Amino acid sequence: MNFPDAPVAGQSFNIWTFDGIAWQRTGAAAVKTARTRNRIINPIAQISQENGNTAQTVAGTYPVDQCRLGLSGIVGQAQRVTPATPSPEGTNSAVNSMATTAKASLAAGDYLQILWVIEYVDVADLQWGTAGALPVVLRFSAYCDVAGTYAVTINNSNGSRTYATSFVAVVGWNRVAMAIPGDTTGTWTADPAIAVHFALAAGSTYVGVPGWQGVNVLAPPGCINGAATANAKYYVTDVGLYADPDNTGVPPKFEPPSYEDDLARCQRYFQTSRIAGVLSSANRVTWVRITVMRGSPSSTSIPAATIVESNVFSTIFDLTNNSGYNVTANARM
Questions:
Q1: pTM given for the model
Q2: Under CATH, domain 67-261 is a member of which superfamily?
């Protein structure tokens, strides 16, 4: 290779740059991305402490930890599934939402969705609701049986602020990334501070305009009615939400969390365990939990036992038999 004679510092030739002393190989410049910390807990749907792979059909239930089912006016369900083929990121678990009875014409208040919820402590640095609100990048993988335009929204705890957008999907797996500006108004401190919604169907009451708005909606105009076809699959997984202070609009390389790390984070909101019963009646037993919970949970046991005290660290039960107890603590948002 014939390098230029008498080069000056900073001069480039092919993939080399002269630093004033010698030619240095420079290669391609690194592409800037959003920050790497994912604010979504259980992004690949691998943790389902309460319901396993059982389909959920009631609004407010959790097909997987931190992901909630929402539906009204539509007979549908959501559950953890193992896709026939892995996602574009190589993931083998997802949440499937679908209508189990077709509804070709939606009433105004109908909807079917799943949503990931995020606690304020995990997004406080985004400063949403202030002049310094940071933009974010949302990424996910979606598998669709029906091609079309699908809705994505982000809102705050009471639905007084919503960002509505959409993506065009082909049949099969779709890798999606979208840049979202931070919201400079509204209240984003009450839990769940941010909820990321994937609506399969939304009636006119829940259809808004693209972008930020001061109402609770689930879709912009022009999105598919995914409830029109019974049992049409709509898988979502590989969900990531990242701060993007440099406005790159580019997500970082997806890093799936380990099972152990994901489980520990999920147990801040929901835990199950088993404690032994006793021979004598009214014996008091303290269940010290694995992880400090988000708040004082609603604790239950099977068979039923009297709860004396419940806080973020433990629950105290009065036990009355020796059969053993399955116990649950729920501090979900």
A1: 0.89
A2: Galactose-binding domain-like (2.60.120.260)
